[in-house]
């Protein structure tokens, strides 16, 4: 699982890559709790599951879960800029049809 800034090339085209532009929202993958959550998600069997991401920020965890096999994700945030960043990142990663944002 790779988290890649949207302006860079992916390091491994055969891996699960999440292209991310956090905009003004929290969530680049470098914060320790985000990194630990990403490692945890990567070790789960998410096939057919629904994932809820409270305080979704950039959408990084919800999008990673979808790219790792989750059927659906729900992202919730009180910041309108975070919702927009999540929406943009979901489109960038081809998962916007499976991500609901509130």
General description of the model:
The chain has helices at residues 32-42, 60-67, 80-92; strands spanning 2-5, 17-20, 50-54, 72-76, 99-101. With 102 residues, it is of the alpha/beta class. It has one domain (2-101): 3-Layer(aba) Sandwich (Rossmann fold). Helix 1 packs parallel to helix 2. The mean pLDDT is 90. One of its GO terms (cellular component) is cytosol. One of its GO terms (molecular function) is protein-lysine N-methyltransferase activity. This is Methyltransferase domain-containing protein. Pfam families: PrmA.
Give the biggest sheet.
3 strands, parallel
The CATH H-level homologous superfamily: Vaccinia Virus protein VP39
List the total number of helices: 3
Low-confidence stretches: none
What's the CATH topology name?
Rossmann fold
Overall average residue pLDDT: 90
The level-1 CATH class: Alpha Beta
Which structural class best describes the helix and strand composition? alpha/beta
Portion of residues in helices? 25-40%
User: What is the count of β-strands?
Assistant: 5
Order of helices and strands: EEHEHEHE
**How does the overall form come out from the CA principal axes?**
globular
Q: What is the CATH architecture assignment?
A: 3-Layer(aba) Sandwich
Radius of gyration over C-alpha positions, nearest whole angstrom? 12 Å
Counted up, domains total 1
What is the terminal separation in angstroms? 26 Å
Give the strand line-up of the largest sheet.
3-4-5
* Percentage beta strand: 15-25%
């Amino acid at each position: 699982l790779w988290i890649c800034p949207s302006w860079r090339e992916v390091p491994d085209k055969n891996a699960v890559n999440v292209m991310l532009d956090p905009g003004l929202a929290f969530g680049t993958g470098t914060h320790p709790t985000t990194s630990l959550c990403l490692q945890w998600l990567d070790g789960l069997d998410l096939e057919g599951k629904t994932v809820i991401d409270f305080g979704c920020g950039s959408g990084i965890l919800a999008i990673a879960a979808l790219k790792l096999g989750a059927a659906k994700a729900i992202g919730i945030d009180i910041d309108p800029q975070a919702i927009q960043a999540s929406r943009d990142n979901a489109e960038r990663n081809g998962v916007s049809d499976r991500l609901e944002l509130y």
